[in-house]
Design a protein that fits this description.
The complex is a heterodimer. By secondary structure, chain A is α/β, with parallel strands linked by helices. Chain A has a single domain, classed as Transcription Regulator spoIIAA, CATH 3.30.750.24. Chain A is built from four helices and five strands. Chain B has a five-stranded antiparallel β-sheet with strand order 5-14-13-10-11. The longest helix of chain B has about 45 residues, at about 410-455. The interface of A and B includes residues 96 and 97 of A.
Chain lengths: ~110, ~675
């Protein structure tokens, strides 16, 4: 089960992901990112402070946007990852392809 | 105690004996009287004998008629007719005898006349009791509790009257009229039950009228004959047994007379309406046929045929058609009408802007017949239509046509709507059944897929004098996305791989089989870990969808120099046990999943790792299903529990190590229910 809130702050689209992202709820994550991208966002911050668990399917969602974001010149950062979630990103090597910041302020700074 | 046959035979025998006794006593009394002698037998004895005769008749017909099963109303009336016919013929033969003999001394003899009277009384009694038994069944058709009670009262009162007749108490004579009137009133009440008439069809009603009329005739004939004879005896002041003193006979004559007369009248008055009743019965029959069709018919087409036939015959339509819309295509099933004519009629309706006569929310206030009359080249003058709805969606319509105008009434409209509803249910059931069959087929296919996939994982792992391998894998769904394999290269090195496809289920299983293909072909090339993963990445980049990736760890074990080279492509860190200092560690060198970076940069994110193994060293490979599995409190099994579990059994062989880890794992998760794919591979060096 996952709940995704969309906020806008200083021209940055912020997605707050709450709950667990598994094979079925990864579809929700995908459509949330897709919506933001299609609405012409140029800066996306994904707040993962309440993301408790992410499965390989959920990681696949982030991975699938890397190429598209690069082409459209959209920058995306992930912030506030719990140790457990960060570890999952690290094992897969996805932390090397995505921008991960410690907290929201650092993320905002990065996107400016 | 006795069989029916024995009872009927016994009652016939007993009846004949008692009748003969009665006649003999009566005759002897009369003989004594005419000859001025003192009668040898008393009148009471004759009465007792006669009442026993009546009782025998009662028993005889009770068993003959009550026990006859599966008998229809006309057959019952037929029995009355036969009894009446036989008795009347016997009576008429005697009459003929008297006529032939003329005014001889025999016919003039009062004894002979008394004998004839006894015969006629006996025959009349038989007719009455037969009628009584048959009417009992007619009256008690569709019985209620009250009706049964009233009937019992009537029946027992009648039987009691047999006893009353023979009791020698004079004070009872005062009750005679009261008793008789009581029986007649109850009989009259019972005569009101004529429900059976409604269930006869037109033909049967005519037969019934004939049979009842004849029964009435017999009754009249006997009544007239015995009354006349009794009158003669009374006038001649001769002693005889007067039937008019017998409550049983009088009450029965009244009851049978009333019921036959009522039956005749009810049958007559019901004749004109019998077609309506028959039609209703047919409607019910058609309806039943339609609802049953779903269970027995093999195809939807057959259901349509039955629907058309049933609805046409129920409302006496001249033609009908069914139409179904599917993917913008309309299919027609026509009954006694051409498809071209249907299209012609529909076109005309559209021209006249009668929108969607076939639709659920169609405007029914408009007179469809008026439009139909203007259609050229059609013989039909009236039309009704009803929608066929499946799961709240109209899938088609049923239309019926008649050659006369205003041929359908409101009642028929309702009937047709009901038929269409029933057809909708039948079709829905039919489709559900088909879907269920289809699902069953899919399940079967999945089972095959599962069998095929399990054959993709190696049955036995490579083992030799340098090491032993044990492996365990279990999928959450029928098919899974975990993979492991070994290969002995031409240069004597061992290639070992563990892989995990992102996501789970069928798509993961397909990617897993691709991974196997890649491993089977590339491992032959004797490549180093980095080169292998690079080529695997290129191959997989072509076929994985953009959100899928595969994590893997690839080992090359050089048995000659006891050295292991490996690289991690995003897979869970390998757990390693050093036998020298008895410690465990996770090799978490840098790495990246296959298919995540689909260009030449990929190898930049990989890191080669190399170590020398010693005898007793253990490699534990696993997929994230193991470490991420949660218990009921939401805690993960995790790396620490895994390594502790290994440390407990490092002196054991790989099979025991695997089963020990699994034991600890399942104990932790608390159930055998799986929500991810679990794989463990254990390599132990010798």
């Amino acid at each position: 089960m996952v709940d995704i809130k969309h906020l806008t702050e200083d021209g940055i689209d912020i997605l707050v992901v709450v709950g667990e992202v598994d094979a079925s709820s990864s579809i929700q994550l995908d459509s949330a990112i897709k919506e933001v991208v299609e609405n012409g966002a140029s800066k996306i911050l994904i707040d993962c402070r309440s993301l408790e668990y992410i499965s390989s399917a959920g990681l696949g969602v982030f991975m699938s946007y890397i190429e598209e974001l690069k082409q459209k010149n959209i920058s995306m950062v992930l912030t506030d990852l719990s140790e457990k979630v960060h570890n999952v990103f690290q094992i897969l090597g996805l932390d090397q392809l995505l921008t991960i910041c410690e907290n929201r302020e650092a993320g905002m700074e990065k996107l400016k | 105690m006795f069989s029916y046959k024995a009872i009927t035979r016994l009652s016939v025998f007993f009846g004949i004996v008692t009748w003969c006794t009665t006649a003999f006593i009566d005759l002897s009394i009369l003989f004594s009287y005419t000859n001025g002698l003192k009668p040898e037998y008393s009148r009471e004895l004759s009465l007792v004998s006669f009442n026993l005769f009546l009782f025998s008749l009662y028993i005889f017909y009770k068993y003959r008629i009550d026990k006859a099963e599966n008998i229809n109303f006309i057959d019952l009336l037929w029995r009355v007719f036969v009894t009446g016919l036989v008795t009347t013929v016997i009576s008429l033969i005697f009459r003929l005898l008297i006529f032939i003999l003329g005014d001889s001394t025999l016919t003039q003899s009062v004894l002979f006349q008394d004998f004839i009277y006894s015969v006629n009384i006996g025959l009349l009694s038989a007719v009455l009791v037969a009628c009584f038994s048959v009417f009992r069944r007619l009256i008690l058709y569709q019985k209620s509790k009250v009706l049964i009670t009233v009937w019992r009262v009537f029946q027992y009162s009648l039987l009691l009257s047999l006893l009353y007749n023979v009791l020698p108490f004079t004070f009872l004579d005062d009750f005679f009229n009261i008793y008789l009137i009581f029986l007649i009133v109850v009989g009259l009440f019972l005569s009101g039950n004529m429900k059976w008439v409604a269930y006869l069809n037109f033909r049967q009603k005519w037969k019934g009228i004939l049979l009842v009329t004849l029964a009435l005739f017999y009754l009249g004939y006997f009544f007239w004959t015995v009354t006349k004879q009794a009158l003669d005896f009374t006038e001649a002041e001769l002693p005889f047994t007067d039937f008019q003193d017998n409550i049983f006979l009088l009450a029965l004559i009244a009851f049978v007379g009333i019921y036959t007369l009522f039956s005749l009248l009810v049958l007559l008055f019901n004749l004109p309406t019998s077609s309506v009743f028959e039609q209703k019965l047919e409607e019910v029959g058609n309806f039943q046929r339609l609802s049953q069709s779903i269970q027995t018919e093999q195809s939807e087409e057959r259901v349509y045929d039955i629907l058309l036939e049933s609805s046409v015959s129920t409302v006496f339509a001249d033609a009908a058609w069914l139409e179904f819309e599917h993917d913008g295509q309309t299919t027609y099933y026509c009954h006694k009408i051409d498809e071209s004519e249907v299209l012609n009629i529909k076109d005309k309706f559209e021209e006249n802007k009668v929108k969607g006569i076939m639709h659920q929310d169609a405007d029914r206030t408009r007179n469809l017949d008026k439009v139909l009359r203007s259609v050229k080249g059609t013989r039909f003058r009236s039309l009704i239509a009803a929608p066929i709805v499946v799961k709240n969606q109209q899938i088609g319509s049923l239309a019926l046509l008649k050659e006369v105008s205003d041929g359908f009434n409101r009642e028929m409209q309702k009937i047709i709507a009901t038929f269409a509803n029933q057809a909708g249910i039948s079709i829905e059931n039919f489709r559900l059944l088909n879907e269920a069959l289809q699902n069953e087929r899919y399940k079967e296919e999945l089972k095959i897929a599962s069998q095929v996939q399990s054959s993709l994982l190696p049955d036995t792992m490579l083992s030799n004098k340098h090491f032993n391998i044990s492996a365990y894998s279990k999928s959450a769904a029928e098919v899974g996305g975990d993979y492991y394999d070994t290969f002995l290269t031409s240069s004597g090195k061992v290639a070992l791989i563990i892989g995990d496809v992102s996501g789970k289920g069928t798509s993961a299983a397909f990617h897993m089989s691709q991974m196997k293909g890649i491993f089977q072909s590339l491992s032959q090339l004797d490549l180093g870990p980095i080169a292998f993963l690079e080529k695997a990445n290129i191959a997989l980049s072509q076929c994985l969808d953009k959100a899928s990736f595969i994590t893997a760890t690839y080992f090359v074990i050089d048995l000659q120099v006891q050295r292991v080279n490996f690289a991690r492509a995003g897979h869970c860190p390998t757990l390693y046990y050093h036998s020298k200092n008895k410690t465990t560690e996770y090799f978490s060198n840098r790495g990246m999943g296959l298919g995540m970076l689909r260009n030449n940069d990929f190898t930049n994110y990989l890191e080669i790792n190399e170590f020398k193994y010693r005898p007793g060293d253990i490699i534990v490979l696993y997929t994230d299903g193991i470490t991420e599995a949660q218990n009921s409190r939401g805690e993960e099994y995790g790396y620490d529990r895994l390594s502790i579990s290994l440390e407990e059994v490092t002196d054991k062989g790989p099979d025991d190590i695997t089963s020990h880890i699994l034991e600890s794992f399942y104990e932790f998760t608390g159930s055998e229910a799986i929500d991810d794919d679990y794989t463990i591979v254990v390599v132990k060096f010798k």
